[in-house]
Specification:
10-stranded mixed beta sheet, 12% strand, alpha/beta
Length: 541
């Protein structure tokens, strides 16, 4: 459910790699383990026509990747009707003689591009040796028939530039809600029939079709953030097809599919829990390990936020830190330990800049550095991650999925009214989260009319699901992981003590459990609490 994943500078390289998905399919890869071969009793689908490709054509071709565009029904009620293409990339198993099958990967979002996740290093050598790693862009995302609400970037900017991420004044709120209605009007005009078929239920159907198309009898899958909802939905729609499903950074599926507002309120509380722990750990580390570690870190942070709530702060280079840019940057930094020491430097620099302008500071002012400038850049709240193939270089799959999955009221003023109460509960992120979903109030294909899977969630799967939760996950709070484990028919929860969103690839201890589970189907012992490999504030050498 990562709200902060963005297109990288490798976009042109990705586009070039995608252009290689033409011509004759490669020779059949090594035969899967007999236990993974699809049953002949299943409905037959066309096999994937893989073609060799290079994930980054600016570098030598490693010769281990293939790409494909796999056709699936636009509307599963009309399976022989119009088709859309799912872009796929695989990294072939390094040890074909011991190959088990395919491991499908989804990074979340919704709207996150999973295509290049075939190149991920989050999994150890044994997994890379024995599985084809398969990344894909879900329907409507990036390379897979991207859902587009605008025809040009200029049209999009004319709408999005009128929105305020954390609107406080009546004028800001009204402008944001008006622009949001213009956005959904554009979606009605431009998105086409795909907008009616963006729910996670359809993604799970696509995933099962891809499983059969690569010849696997059962699914091996790792889903992160929103990708955990794909995994949970698949596990309950196709419980007998679960070989090994890892879900990391979990949503609460039942709450999400039944009450979008309450889900978002609790999501804001999760960000607050992570922020509070970040500030406690910063104080414990102290300066210089944590640049913001002097004095009462909680009081100092609150003073910065409250100062910005009344007026923006102009920096010496002419940039301006607003409440919206500040809040979005803090939220972004909580997603990863690697961003938290830089965040601390930015907070300290902003505090110094305010002190030098004559406002009171809770510590002695220092010379404000360039670090404060990072807080002047607003991180977009919604994923818009398509390739620049058209005059509108983004996509709108974030809302395409969320507004079909999560039921919301049809009155957009509800969000503005709730923002006040949510802000009292969650002072930093309540208003921020309240204005994440007003588009769903006027979305052309809302959840109440959608084909969507909303339960039951407790169907017993052929093999247990591995649930992973961080104690201080900002985007999907730890309680969501506990609920996911309880709601699923057969699942075990592994915990990591860290302020971060998702954990696979961040802990060697966890990596061993993940490898054993994927390769040998060894279910981890319940109740384990693991540590990450790195610290947010390592000792200064």
């Amino acid at each position: 459910m990562s709200r902060v994943s963005r297109m990288s500078t490798a976009a042109l390289a990705i586009a070039s790699a995608f252009a290689l998905v033409v011509g004759t399919a490669d020779a059949a890869s090594a035969a899967p383990d007999p236990g993974a071969v699809a049953s002949a009793a299943e409905a037959r689908v066309e096999p994937v026509a893989w073609t060799p490709c290079n994930p980054d054509p600016t570098k030598p071709d490693p010769g281990i990747y293939d790409c494909a565009v796999y056709p699936v029904p636009l509307d599963y009620d009309d399976p022989s009707g119009e088709k859309i293409g799912i872009a796929m990339m695989r990294r072939r198993a390094a040890d074909p003689a011991k190959r088990i099958g395919s491991l499908f990967l989804n990074p979340g979002g919704p709207g996150g591009s999973g295509y290049l996740w075939a190149t991920t290093t989050r999994f150890g050598k044994d997994v890379q040796d024995r599985f084809d790693l398969v990344g894909f862009d879900p329907r409507g995302v990036a390379r897979s028939n991207p859902l587009k609400c605008f025809t040009t970037d200029e049209e999009a900017a004319a709408v999005f530039d009128r929105q305020v991420g954390v609107p406080v004044t009546r004028a800001e709120v009204d402008a944001t809600l008006d622009a949001t209605e213009d956005y959904t009007d554009a979606c009605s005009r431009n998105a086409g029939p795909l907008i009616e078929h963006m729910s996670t239920e359809n993604v799970a159907r696509d995933l099962d079709r891809m499983r059969r198309a690569v010849g696997d009898r059962q699914l091996s899958y790792a889903g992160f953030s929103y990708g955990t909802l794909i995994g949970a939905t698949y596990a309950n729609m196709y419980p007998d097809k679960v070989r090994a499903v890892i879900i990391d950074g979990n949503v609460d599926p039942n709450l999400r599919l039944h009450n979008g507002l309450e889900y978002d309120r609790q999501r804001a509380a999760g960000f607050e829990l992570a922020l509070d722990e970040f500030l406690k750990r910063c104080k414990a580390a102290g300066a210089p390990r944590c640049a913001f570690g002097e004095g009462d870190t909680r009081a100092r942070f609150d003073a910065l936020r409250d100062r910005l709530r009344t007026s923006p702060v102009s920096l010496s280079d002419g940039t301006t830190v607003t409440l919206s840019s500040f809040t979005s940057q803090v939220a972004s930094a909580l997603y990863a330990q690697s961003r938290q020491a830089p965040l601390a430097r930015s907070l300290q620099a902003l505090d110094d800049a305010i002190a030098q302008q004559g406002a009171p500071s809770l510590v002695a002012p220092k010379v404000a550095g360039d670090d404060a400038k990072a807080l002047a850049v607003t991180v977009p709240s919604a994923l818009r991650e398509a390739l620049p193939e058209t005059p509108y270089s983004a996509d709108d799959s974030y809302y395409g999925v969320n507004c079909q999955d999560k039921p919301y009221p049809s009155n957009p003023r509800v969000f503005a009214n709730l923002a006040r109460s949510w802000e009292r509960e969650s002072p930093t992120f309540g208003r921020y989260q309240a204005f994440d979903a007003p588009a769903c109030a006027s979305w052309p294909a809302p959840a109440r009319d959608a084909e969507r899977y909303s339960g039951p969630w407790n169907r017993r799967t052929a093999n247990p699901v591995m649930v992973i939760g961080n104690l201080y996950d900002p985007a999907t709070q730890y309680e969501f992981a506990e609920r996911m484990q309880r709601q699923l028919g057969s699942a075990v929860l592994v915990t990591v003590d860290v302020v971060e969103h998702c954990a696979v690839g961040r802990s060697a201890e966890l990596g061993k459990l993940v490898t054993s589970y994927l390769v040998d189907k060894t279910v981890p012992a319940p109740g384990q609490v693991l540590k990450p490999d790195a610290e947010a504030f390592p000792p200064v050498s």
